[in-house]
Amino acid sequence: MNPTIDLLNAHRSIRKFTATPIDQATVDTLVKAGQAAATSSFIQACTVIQVSSGERRDALAEMAGNQKYVASAPVFLVFCADMKRHQLACDMHDAEMQTGFTEQFLTASLDCALFAQNVMIAAESLGLGGVYIGGLRNQIAAVSELLELPELVYPVFGLCLGHPDQNPETKPRLPLEVVLKQDRYDDSQDAEHIAAYDKNVREYYRTRTGGNKEMSWSEQISGMLVKEARPHMLPFLHKQGFIKR
Description:
With 245 residues, the protein is α+β, with helices and mostly antiparallel strands. The protein has helices at 3-9, 24-35, 55-63, 68-72, 84-92, 102-125, 140-146, 176-179, 190-208, 217-224, 233-239; strands at 46-50, 75-82, 129-133, 153-162. It is 45% helix and 11% strand.
């Protein structure tokens, strides 16, 4: 083990922050650390929009499902998959850009995820904490309009950052045997491992909520996946020029 691995293993979602501000130089440093992440074919397809406190931030909090920490966090960033600058690059060389490919959507989205994870790790290394906000996709068209996103750009998720004002336990992850396979995909023992893991997760929730919530991982997932998952996403992405072929 080393300090980097210890930091990674200590990750928790932080939703309560002190009033201590984060200066812009620190935000710039975190975003530069994000830029250092791996990027598919040097495509660099992530744009970050920092939204300051005010009416626009309050609107994003409401659109994300009334998550109050979106409005109150010292820093709120929106990570956007952005292929528009690539259109500009093609225009600069009189090249006709081919758009709408599913692969372009995947590489741009993955670039955002890698970029954002670097930002989070860098923030945690400075004693900050944060939480990702996928709820922005609840009303993704409204979010895009608010942020004035053009075609070939879409908001992947947000990120709240600040000085932690809580100290939650780390959430238990799936057993290594479930996620690390050798040579081939073998899930013959997964049910057994997940059953044991369910007990750990149930105890985690019970302890965290003072007995108000007792739910296993498999119960949580099965309850979630019997519902529609933002069916508005596909037509919106088509409108923005993604996943057309």
